[in-house]
Amino acid sequence: MVNGTNDRPRLTRKGERVRARIVEEAAALIHERGVAGTTLDDVKAAAQVSGSQLYHYFPDKNELLQAVIGYQADTVVTNQRQALLGSAMGLEAWRDMVVTGVTRAQAGGCPLGSLVGQLAESDPEARALIAAGLERWATAISEGLRLLHSDGKLAPGIDPDDLATTVLATLQGALLLAQVQRSTRPFETAIDTLLALAIKT
Amino acid sequence: MVNGTNDRPRLTRKGERVRARIVEEAAALIHERGVAGTTLDDVKAAAQVSGSQLYHYFPDKNELLQAVIGYQADTVVTNQRQALLGSAMGLEAWRDMVVTGVTRAQAGGCPLGSLVGQLAESDPEARALIAAGLERWATAISEGLRLLHSDGKLAPGIDPDDLATTVLATLQGALLLAQVQRSTRPFETAIDTLLALAIKT
């Protein structure tokens, strides 16, 4: 134990930057080509690091994969928080953000949700990390919905936490429909219909 | 051209049964192990046919895969129609059917939707067939919702076709959440919340 919290060596600021670059490039490759289609050699080339550098930060592909899942979860949760779903303007901004995001999703699907089909049945650790990331996403959505709820803007009798689960489910399924139909139309229809039902204008 | 509609030989009734058994066994294997994890040898063994019999019906894996996509689409559409979503009793029955179905989905996800992540980016023909299957499913949901609509049971201002897309998206996403969380709870929450918002009791 070096730093008292885990058994990884403490990183210098430069080390942190290199590690972050590796994770970011690996995440982009995995989103584009899938887990099975991405090799450590691809990641080395994209992040412009040597094999020994890559090994220094990630002794095996599983550790890198786990860092990628954490990175994608952080990204969606940060985006969710920045959208300020709780304000009326925030709701519009959030809707526009997810609809813009779906253009990326038409090739590759949701960066986090698309990992479920690839990993849930074969990699229990990855499954648990993806589940935790999606839970954090639902919590971030719920924070915004609670604000709308306390402003009296949710449909009567609806629990903000239940609605957050529903919004996340609809987002994931709508991304899947958009990916397979190569069109943003089903995505926009599903999100707009759910928001029209759940939120008073 | 043998039978005037396509270039496949017309099958005897026994031939139809053998072909159907091959497709059914292949569908079960693919749902359990994924497309990449299922070989033609696995299918031969499960359907108890010889290599030449399998080749007679399906000259390559792609043709078999396309028949499996059609089979899974037929299955979900038939189940959807039988649930009689349009009646009040039908709504309860439909909700119970999908919640029961999700127990299967906890390992493997939706038999049709789970193929999106595996095939949409690599196999354009399969992608188009899955998209067509999901469209047929949305149409079947819409038929039920139109009946509810004409009985005045939908939330005001909601188009039944738009709601059908939303229901299908929520189903797909809720199946994904159930699969990754190994729990039916997020699935039940999402479906029940959407139905509570969309349909008058």
TrEMBL record, chains A, B:
Native source species: Actinospica durhamensis
The name this protein carries in UniProt is TetR/AcrR family transcriptional regulator
Instruction: Please report the stretch or stretches of sequence annotated as the HTH tetR-type domain.
Output: 16-76
UniProt DNA-binding region:
39-58
Q: Which Pfam families does the UniProt entry name for this protein?
A: TetR_C_13 (PF16925), TetR_N (PF00440)
Instruction: Determine if Ion transport is one of this entry's keywords.
Output: no
Q: Which branch of life, at top level?
A: Bacteria
Record-level Gene Ontology MF annotations? DNA binding
Provide the alphabetized UniProt keywords. DNA-binding, Transcription, Transcription regulation
